[in-house]
Design a protein that fits this description.
Length: 397
């Protein structure tokens, strides 16, 4: 890595740290990232060699470095939304919005990419191509990435490859992890309404108990992964919520369930959706009730492109040292709407370590005590800057 780039990162770092603290203190939910987007837009708008585009949705910021230049175009993406979680950290930049916090590190992702834009804008004339910065809304809820792709974010100029990073709490600070192929699972939304016949809890024979039916459905659904999925494939069926009834001595007429179904192969997804429907509907019928099943595919699975993952690994080894590049990390059953970009162009997401040395463990993603580590900001910036420079110079040859 050229010393000038390292110096450029060091120069902008104080501003990027305070931007992250500002974003952390002012979290916004999916598709409500108005102030976050405004802050990003303001900074990018004053950088040389960058054109900020009009929003494709309401709260996205897309900007192009070297807009007038020909040549390859690399896309770099950050997500900006926070979560409906009450922060349990006592820090100066604690969330000022009750019930909301940046528990998935998207404040750090956004600040990192702003820093990358600042650094690359300084050396834009030396870059043999373009960079498209994509600050997207609604990664957590609503698939903002998918909506941006539908609106043409990968076109004009056409993006040749796409990269992003995600904070990773189980991995040492200063390290990255990348893998080829499966990275994050496909998800499905699941809602089941069980209908029976309400009545007095003392006279169950005069009712059809939807709570009992729901209990049998939950148990039955567990047979899908245990008995219908190959032991060599990965899948999850979880019921995370059951609501029904209002008193201990009343049998309600209805009971509602919500859950998630996760998998990698599309065929397996088809089988699981069909299986959930069959088990819920037929179980309810068996007990004299009815089940209405709503099940719909949500985020697709994220697969890292082999060449792009190899480039991340190469850059990581060169910048951080081989010992700080983890390549054996297994895929996750978590989901990531970066998958929508990766369906269209060669792409890779890598994980950025958050776990400080000499500590037992670090709070997990979506935990009320999780925070993106400031020490990881320059690591992420170096990685993304160098990925952009190396990708463009090789592709432009
Ligand atoms: Ni996240």
């Amino acid at each position: 890595m050229p010393d000038s780039l390292k110096q450029a990162i060091d120069r902008v770092l104080p501003e990027i740290v305070s931007l992250r603290h500002d974003l952390h203190a002012h979290p916004e939910l999916s598709f409500k990232e108005y102030n976050t987007a405004r802050k990003v837009r303001d900074i990018l708008g004053r950088l040389p060699n960058i054109r900020v585009l009009p929003p494709l949705l309401e709260t996205d910021v897309v900007a192009i470095l070297n807009p007038e230049r020909d040549g390859p175009c690399i896309g770099l993406r950050a997500d900006m939304d926070a979560l409906p979680i009450t922060e349990e950290l006592d820090i100066p930049h604690k969330s000022t919005t009750p019930g909301l916090m940046h528990a998935c590190g998207h404040d750090g992702h956004t600040a990192t990419l702003v820093g990358v834009a600042m650094v690359l804008s300084e050396i834009a004339t030396a870059l043999p191509g373009r960079v498209k910065f994509v600050f997207q809304p609604a990664e957590e809820d609503g698939g903002g990435g998918g909506k941006l792709v539908e609106r043409g974010v990968l076109e004009d100029p056409k993006v040749d490859a796409m990269f992003c990073l995600h904070a990773w709490p189980t991995q040492p600070l200063g390290s990255i992890a990348v893998r080829t192929g499966p990275v994050c699972a496909a998800t499905n939304e699941l809602r089941i309404t069980v209908r029976g016949k309400g009545g007095h809890g003392a006279y169950p024979h005069k009712s059809i108990d939807p709570i009992l039916i729901a209990a049998h459905i939950v148990t039955g659904l567990q047979s899908l992964v245990a008995r219908n999925v190959s032991p060599f494939e990965s899948a999850v069926v979880t019921i995370g919520q059951i609501t029904g009834g209002a008193a201990g001595n009343v049998i309600p007429s209805e009971c509602a369930m919500r859950g998630t179904i996760r998998h990698y192969s599309p065929e397996l997804g088809e089988m699981l959706r069909e299986g959930v429907r069959r088990i819920a509907e037929q179980t309810a019928l068996a007990y004299g009730g009815q089940a209405e099943v709503f099940v719909r595919p949500s985020y697709p699975a994220l697969f890292n492109d082999r060449d792009m993952a190899a480039l991340v690994e190469e850059v990581g080894c060169d910048l951080l040292g081989r010992e700080r590049v983890i390549t054996t990390e297994s895929p996750s059953m978590g989901s990531e709407d970066f998958a929508y970009y990766a369906q269209r162009v060669p792409a890779a997401m890598f994980r950025l370590g958050m776990w400080p040395p000499d500590t037992e463990a670090y709070p997990g993603l979506h935990h009320p005590q999780f925070e993106f580590r400031d020490e990881a900001l320059p690591v992420g910036m170096r990685m993304l800057c160098e990925l952009a420079m190396r990708f463009l110079s090789r592709r432009a040859r």
